[in-house]
Write a structure and sequence with these properties.
Layout lengths: L10 E2 L5 H11 L10 H9 L2 E7 L5 E6 L3 H11 L5 H19 L14 H34 L2 H10 L3 E2 L8
Antiparallel strand pairs: 1-4, 2-3
Length: about 180
């Protein structure tokens, strides 16, 4: 019988040479976003009554979706749930202000909180256009959020955080030690 014991020096990421670190970063670049990382953004949208149906990043960056209920309810949920520094908050705030002005315009001057019965058709047409603009704007906001999330997940900072959080160890040449 023969027992062959092999000793291997292993290093935490911080102790690797610059060349080895570069190899590690390259090998991990694809894995930090190698899952359905967008689920949190989709869930966030759902919580504000917006259904995201597809998105694409980079040069063709876009996001598609629809209101689960209606534009006004989505805007109000965003105001309740998103912070005032968030792009979606600003978009929703602008939409609600424009909608308020539209109601006032078609109120007939009696009660500025309610559309006059004689003006409902014109209000509905203008409001439909306003709602469509809001949907385009809010989907653009989510598209930007998805792009930023992906860029962060594939950044050197996120890769190093993942490596350190999982306490991965490497051989001297930067190969993951298992």
């Amino acid at each position: 019988m023969r027992v062959d014991v092999k000793k291997t020096k292993v290093y935490p990421f911080a102790e690797l040479s610059d060349d080895a670190k570069e190899k590690v970063l390259e090998s991990f670049a694809e894995t930090t976003a190698d899952y359905e990382w967008w689920d949190s953004e989709y869930e966030d949208a759902k919580n504000v009554l917006l259904k995201l149906t597809e998105f694409d990043l980079d040069r063709n960056r876009h996001c598609k979706g629809e209101f689960i209920e209606n534009a006004k309810d989505t805007a109000q949920k965003i105001i309740e749930d998103h912070g005032d520094m968030c792009g979606t908050f600003q978009t929703a705030k602008g939409y609600l202000e424009d909608r308020r002005k539209l109601v006032e315009k078609y109120s007939g001057g009696i009660n500025t909180q309610i559309v006059a019965e004689d003006n409902e058709y014109e209000f509905d047409n203008d409001c439909e256009e306003l709602d469509a603009d809001f949907l385009r704007s809010i989907l653009e906001d989510y598209s930007i959020m998805l792009q930023k999330q992906y860029e962060y997940l594939t950044s050197e900072e996120a890769i190093v955080e993942t490596i350190e959080a999982n306490e991965y160890e490497f051989t001297e040449d930067g190969k993951l030690y298992s």
